[in-house]
Amino acid sequence: MKNSKILFGIISMIILAFSACQVSENASDSASPTTTPSNPNSNINVQQNANAPAQAQNVPNQQAQQLQVQRGIGNIENVRRPNYDTFPEPPAPPFARNRIQVALLLDTSNSMDGLIDQAKSQLWKMVNELAKSTKEEQPPQIELSLFEYGNDWLTEASGHIRKVSRLTIDLEFVSDRLFELKTNGGNEYCGWAVKDATEILDWSDNPNDLKIIFIAGNEEYTQGPVDYKMACLKAKEKGIIINTIHCGDYDTGIRHMWGDGAKCSGGQYMNIDQDKKVVHIPTPYDDKVLELNKKLNDTYFGYGSLGESRKHMQMANDVKASGYSSANTRTRTFYKTKKNYSNASWDIVDATEENYDEVMSDIKTEELPEEMQKMSKEEQKTFIEEKRKERKELQAELKELEKKVDAFVTEKKKEMAAESGDDTLDNVMMSTIRKQAEAKGFVFE
């Protein structure tokens, strides 16, 4: 009997010690900071005091453990999930007489990493070529929009489709958002994507402007609840041309109705090898271009609510471009010499080019670039004029380099033509868009 009492006492002590450890462990878990909320589908009701033990929140141990597992899953998802709201969307583009509007609809399902990679590396090449066109001896206003579709991070109710950017002249914003795209999933609803781009975007009412949708993907064009033929007819009614790009062999794209998806609007069907590496041609002028690019960036000064973030974006996009090749950085730099590259929404030099007094009267001292805040009115004007003069001199020097680079690359391409082929995103897009622009009266250099 005495031994039984001793044994019972030992067992009781073990149970008490184990319970104390559990309380301590749960309190420790609750005290750890968590940046990711619990699963929104969970029906567990946890009070706001995260430092309180699970028992004090009236959550059973089993439910508390389930909550920790859900939080862990949330943390893993957030590592992979793209950040959709890093920067505010740019303002609507101003009215212009001659406009080229291009909406890129990119499939971001699991198999499309190669497509996204090609788009990242060739965006500036495409817009730089467009900037070489004129109509009635005036350069066009180039507006770009970006959509992603086929991504399971996006809801079924949205068709797994997201407007990444409105039609905008702020191509720095489009470039930044393009680099944030991540593949995942999914269900590729082409008809729905075309319908959204047609209805959501602010397309020009002028029938003489060029309005184009490029949609690229690799699954059947007929997927989803929206009839692609009806979507195409609505686009055609607005004067929008749909060009389809099948990421795979030509005949498969025809069988999967990518050819038919372009036909009704008078668009072009193309196919590319999305996994093919784009050939970047270095030139003897690249180091000089990079040197001038750094000097050119030093002539931009952010003002207002967008100033700091957009200046950071400009520099960050340079770094991203250089991650592909010197050729990509080179092409991006050349675009900065074009009139189309306007940053009036955040750069004080661009903003004051046409209406200096009006713009400056609306800007508070604290919204000016830090370098200008302690200057007198006269000093501010002199500062801006000097930076504008410096910028134009650098742009002129870069334009001369661009001619030399173009000549060098043209010769190299002739030598490489037999082995390089033309089935990459930039090549098929540019050959198509030039023809369609020329049909609207745009003339290329």
Fold blueprint:
Layout: H1 2-31, H2 61-80, E1 99-107, H3 113-130, E2 133-134, E3 141-149, E4 161-168, H4 171-180, H5 190-200, E5 210-217, H6 228-237, E6 241-247, H7 250-255, H8 258-263, E7 269-272, H9 286-297, H10 307-322, H11 326-335, H12 348-351, H13 356-361, H14 377-420, H15 425-439, E8 443-444
Parallel strand pairs: 1-3, 1-5, 5-6, 6-7
Antiparallel strand pairs: 2-8, 3-4
Helix pairs in contact: 3-11, 3-15, 4-10, 5-6, 9-11, 9-14, 10-11
What structural class is derived from the secondary structure elements?
alpha/beta
- The CATH architecture of the largest domain comes to 3-Layer(aba) Sandwich
Give the % helix: 40-55%
Biggest sheet: strand arrangement = 4-3-1-5-6-7
The number of distinct helices, counting runs of at least 4 residues, comes to 15
> If you average the pLDDT, what whole number results?
81
For this structure, what is the CATH class of the largest domain? Answer: Alpha Beta
Spatial separation of the terminal alpha carbons = 106 Å
What is the count of distinct domains?
A: 2
Question: Strand share of the residues?
Answer: 5-15%
What's the alpha carbon Rg, rounded to whole Å? 28 Å
| Order of H and E elements | HHEHEEEHHEHEHHEHHHHHHHE
Poorly predicted runs of 5 or more residues: 1-8, 10-79
Oligomer: single chain
Tell me the total number of β-strands: 8
Overall geometry comes to globular
CATH fold group of the largest domain: Rossmann fold
